[in-house]
Amino acid sequence: MERSIYIFKKALLFIALIFSSKMLQAQDSKSFQLNFEPIFNNQVLVLNDSFYHIDNNDSVRFSKLKFYISSIKFYNNNKLVFAEKNSYHLVDASNSKTLYININKPFGTKFNSIKFNLGIDSITNVKGVLGGELDPTKGMYWTWHSGYINFKLEGTSNLCNTRNSVFEFHLGGFAAPYNCLQTIQLSLSNITTATVLVDVNKFLSQINLANTNAIMTPSKQAVELAKQATKMFIIK
Q1: Is the dihedral of CA 91, 92, 98, 100 positive or negative?
Q2: Which of 107, 135, 118 is CA-nearest to residue 230?
Q3: Which pTM value belongs to this model?
Q4: Per residue in 104-129, pLDDT tens?
Q5: Going along 130-232, which residue ranges are E strands?
Q6: 75 touches 113 (CB < 8 A)
Q7: Among the residues of the chain, which ranges form H helices?
């Protein structure tokens, strides 16, 4: 009888140790969710449906908005406290699942800002064709020479003197002097969820669509527009 009680107690202790170990593993990391919300001014951006006024005389309609977010890092008073590994995320306004990025960081990590790249770095680009989020079938890769498209915006406007009034901005390029990679840093409180507004108007309002309506290769103008694109990202 005593031996049975002893064995039972040993079994309970073993189960308790396993449960405790699992709890510690669960506490070792804590999920942080970074959400992206495409808008135009104060309106939710809806592809292939809504029209948005860009001035008193004309409107614009969007058919595509895609961009790469990479190298996500957390900082506390400008000191790096955590960097996500294999940090490549393709955000696609046509796929709501891609608007939410879950990041597992060490439990108890304190931070007050987050930094990420808009686009893909040159080291990754020179590796050639890759898989996962970087798979060329996702429509964000030119060639081994030109690399990945960091940011893509397409739509229509009567201001465009093009076939079907289409505009296309495909911003990319990793080789000097046309490296389009941009870094964005945003202030955050020590929270578990943050929403980043992506205000396309802040990008498009700086472009004269009558004169500039197609950027499809690495260029000086692509670099300038990539810098302008960083102004779209604002903490909600």
Answers
A1: positive
A2: 118
A3: 0.86
A4: 999 889 999 999 999 999 999 999 88
A5: 149-157, 166-172, 182-187, 193-199, 214-215
A6: yes
A7: 2-27, 122-125, 201-204, 220-229
